[in-house]
User: What shape does this take?
Amino acid sequence: MGLKQYQKIIISMSLIVVSVFADNLPNQTIVDEVQGYKYIDISKTDINRAYCENGEFTQLIFSSEKEIDIQKNGKNAFIKLIPINKTQGDEILSTTINTFAREAYLTCDNKMFSLILVPKDIPAQTIILKTVIDEKRVEKNKEIEVVNDYQTTVSELIKSVYKEITPEGFDLEFIDKPKVQFYELSLIEFKKYVGSTFIIDELIIKANQDVSLNEKMFLPYLQNPLAISLENHKLTKDSTTRLFVVANANPMSNYVQNSSKYSNAIELIQQQKQKEVKDNSKKYLSDEVIDFAKEQLSKEQIENVLKNFNSEE
Assistant: This one.
């Protein structure tokens, strides 16, 4: 994604499809304070920099046997992969930098970050390590959700997780397990951000062949989504992209229910039924109504609605 991208929000009934833009700098990765390992792409040939945002580096743990060197200087740490020379006598025949991943454990602001560094043919990278400094982040998150309108709140949440920043007041869980397998692609549950009002799921889509994607094609495999955002819409074979899904942490929350024009799919179906009966329509339900209902209710609820509808006819 380029630096100058525009935010596009498409609202269809109560489902929001969000395309967010990335305003972080190129060649930069922000790592929030989390449990578990974080995979980071680094330059294979250039010197990479890690930056401790809220403190200084106090300890660096890595294995020099894995052909890596890391040096610290206050808030900065510099990461360099060590090349291997193939020699014959005093003559260097070739120089190789191996591309296997390296583990590094960096203590920043008295918090240890566990990193898996993946060498790539890319320019030098900057890794920003962020620690939590506001103990009242949960209360602040609740205030943000109340003050902001629904659409703005959801958009800001997706923008944060897109940049791999855990929103204030949210807890991050690593899942990393397959969800659905198709011939064309695989859908993997990767992360879950749990807040007091919303839950954000981050899924990884891996293409088994060249494929074009859109947000709504994943709706049957998501549980009551409120908003979805797809990072890339076209994938080549073996490439990946991310899918972000915002759901309601409390399905009965009036905050979400009152934010849509039609808060109850059953009510909408009943309205459509009355219209079709009045018009002596031979069809039971329009495709638009059925699609909307599927976005809002579980399979069992939909079946009950249709069953009651047909029995009355």
Observations:
- The chain has a mean pLDDT of 73.
- The chain has six helices and 20 strands.
- The CA atoms of residues 142 and 196 lie 7 Å apart.
